[in-house]
Amino acid sequence: MNRTITKLRLKRQVKCLDVNEAANYAAHQSEEEHSLFSSVLSTVVDDDNNKRPALDQEANEMAIAHDRIYNQGCLSQASPADIGKAAALQAHKMTTSGTGCIPGSSELIGLAMGEAMKLLKDAGGAGGENQNEALRVAAATAMRLYVSKGRGSQSSGAGGTNGSVGLAYTDGLDTNAGSGGINAAMLSKLM
After folding, report:
1. Is 161 helix (H, G, I), strand (E, B) or coil?
2. 152 against 104, higher pLDDT
3. Which residues touch 18 (CB under 8 Å, ≥6 apart)?
4. Euclidean distance between CA atoms 179 and 77, whole angstroms
């Protein structure tokens, strides 16, 4: 009971993910069709598991995948899931580097999907189930990063008829202490 109350008190604001806007960011980033991204996003946003902070294990997996793909050049050996994780972390780095600002959820998730698509094209693996898996993982991972680290400025409800989805900010605080939620120290290592 106390843990639930504590979690509720730590949540600062809720901002909506606009599926259409996120798909537009992804389409612009990757030069692909909007519909490709909106169809993947529609399945990702319905999973409540994606609206929680990233776990420490997930943060480690993101960092390892990102290092292998972006620093070591091992894209050809990367799985679709690793491509998605690396793309989500790269999108987060791209949008926060030097600014200290956290992007909106639609921007971060859209850029993560667009970056995953670019990696898939570079690896020659665009199309089919591998593509769907990489895009799904990129969107889900970016959602978890956003919830873990985001600092929003706009309040909104938990969803709407325009395809928006509520995502809770936790200001980088470990609201899942004892249950594996990523903490601020772990997240700062990713940046």
Report:
1. coil
2. 104
3. 106, 162, 163, 164
4. 32
Q: How far apart are CA 167 and CA 182, in angstroms?
A: 16
Q: How many other C-beta atoms can be found within 10 angstroms of the C-beta atom of residue 126?
A: 18
Residue owning tokens 């420490």:
56
The backbone torsions φ and ψ at residue 41, rounded to the nearest 5 degrees and listed phi first, read -60, -35
Q: Residue 130 is encoded by which pair of tokens?
A: 């591998």
Average pLDDT, the chain: 75
Closest by Cα among 191, 184, 169 to 89: 191
Residue ranges of the domains in the chain? Answer: 2-190
Separation between Cα atoms, residue 11 and residue 2, nearest integer Å: 14
Contact call for residues 163 and 21 (beta carbons, < 8 A):
no
Whole-prediction pTM: 0.73
Number of C-beta neighbours around residue 68 at 10 A: 16
